[in-house]
Amino acid sequence: MTDKQVLLRVENLYKHFPIKKGGIFSRQTGYIHAVDGVSFDIYNGETLGLVGESGCGKSTTGRTILQLHRPTAGNVFFEGDDLSKLKGGKLRHKRRDLQMIFQDPYASLNPRMTVGQIIAEPMEIHGTYKGSAQLKRVQELLQLVGLNSAFANRYPHEFSGGQRQRIGVARALALEPKLIVCDEPISALDVSIQAQIVNLLEDLQESLGLTYLFIAHDLSMVRHISDRIAVMYLGIVVELAGRNELYTNPAHPYTQALLSAVPFPDPFVEEKRQRIILEGDVPSPANPPSGCRFRTRCRYAKEICAVEKPEFRQISEEHYVACHFSLEKK
Asked: Which of 26, 74, 165, 258 is the Cys-Cys partner for 12 at CB 3.0 to 4.6 Å?
């Protein structure tokens, strides 16, 4: 569990992708506002869940934190160093402490490399283990994620989706990182396998002292694994709170709508629950609404919502929300 020491701080993070039209002589016609001013802290040893609809900017946020996408603006402080300002060898050295588990266990593993070569690749790049020590480390990592150490000589196509994701987890652990960005690591897996991977991640966190940014759209699974949860909508964080506080007392209308869609195991409670149906489609990230991003689908929207951007403010201990009327609804 967290000791309340900030490991990663994201401040006003922006990532805009240019829109170009034309052939060889293409011209820029605008931007995709994928991430548009995101700020949050991740404490040492905790799991911060990041949830929202597809296309809201969750994965782009994770990749921009790791500098796989360089930010358009903003800062990413990891142990006091601004990753967005680092380049070359200094950034490569910092990347040893920041790793990623990718969403697709089929596309993220090179089919031409053996499992042993895949797991050993980070060690080769950073020069941490060589020769017999590297082989021993690969075997240890395979056993750590619940696979037979003899699998090191096999190829990815010989494994199931769940086994491939375990290989991806082993690769992420190869350099003994402090923070792992889990980019929807269970969404491509069978439901029966998802719980196994989540339990593995929890066991590894406890034994190795890991910190996670867990990106997902499965709200029930996020509640299970996360200490705190941030809710994203159209490139911004609209609510951030502890998991129990968020699920029992959601303050933003978008969070309320998301949680109303999560099925409840008790049929009597489920029958009485009110389902909140959001009207309309998610606006284009190339032309987001003025003021509050959610106003075009919000049942509480008023004139101020179109004019003034709501402040991301604290409404209770460790509970933050970006809504003009959240206190009225509580």
From this structure: 74
